Amino acid sequence: MYMRQAWRDPRLQFDPIESKTKKIRMRNGHWNQIWTPDTFFRNEKKASFHDVMGENRLLTVNSTGHVWYVSK
């Protein structure tokens, strides 16, 4: 299952001309340094993350502070 979420955090805005990029892809573990929503499924009976070699997450931030977060 893929969980895709998007939101805007004005604290993450940056100048695309100065940084020479319009979008930043956050590396593994950096998503722990910014706010992410605490999403849950109501009435769940059991939940867990499966163990894999690498992280199953992707987080990108664009210059306007829009965040795209994917977890699988």
Descriptive labels:
elongated, mainly beta, four-stranded antiparallel beta sheet, 72 residues, 29% strand, single chain, 1 helix
In short:
By secondary structure, this protein is mainly β. The chain has one helix spanning 16-19, and strands spanning 3-8, 23-25, 57-62, 66-71. Helix content is 6%, strand content 29%.
Task: Describe the 3D structure.
The protein is mainly beta. The chain has one helix spanning 16-19, and strands spanning 3-8, 23-25, 57-62, 66-71. It has a 4-stranded antiparallel β-sheet with strand order 1-4-3-2, with no helix packed on it. The longest helix has 4 residues, at 16-19. The N and C termini lie close together (6 Å).
How far apart, in Å, are the first and last alpha carbons? Answer: 6 Å
Average predicted local confidence, pLDDT: 84
Strand content: 25-35%
Can you give the helix content as a percent range? under 10%
Oligomerization state: single chain
Q: How many helices does DSSP assign?
A: 1
Low-confidence stretches: none
Helix vs. strand class: mainly beta
- Shape summary: elongated
**Strand element count:** 4
Query: What kind of sheet is the major sheet?
Result: 4 strands, antiparallel
| Main sheet strand line-up | 1-4-3-2
Q: Secondary-structure element order, as H and E?
A: EHEEE
Strand and helix layout:
Blueprint: E1 3-8, H1 16-19, E2 23-25, E3 57-62, E4 66-71
Antiparallel strand pairs: 1-4, 2-3, 3-4
